Amino acid sequence: MDTAAPNRNFTLTFEERLRAYAQGPPAWSRRRRRIEDLEDELSRRAAVAPEEELAAGLATLNDLIARHNRYYPVEANLPLDPRTGALLDGGAPWRPLRPLTRADLKPR
Prior knowledge:
Elements: H1 14-23, H2 27-45, H3 51-75, E1 88-89, E2 92-93
Antiparallel strand pairs: 1-2
Helix pairs in contact: 2-3
């Protein structure tokens, strides 16, 4: 059948579209953005912020990283490599984010 619609390998029902619209971006995506934003903020303040303020920020950041590592594979529905059983993220083995330290913050 000739139509103007491009070929697709999936379709969403009206209910699925409505649910996606109401829920917004997935939790893992929002959490990853919070991690990146907090890391940028801490990096900008690394040279001038008091040590205890930076320590509190790093604790919050590392808590977000730990939660992201715990839930990301399930929330993003990562596939398994049938040969190794490893989780795949974009075709490559998934690597959890590592906790950051004061030394990892590059002043900007």
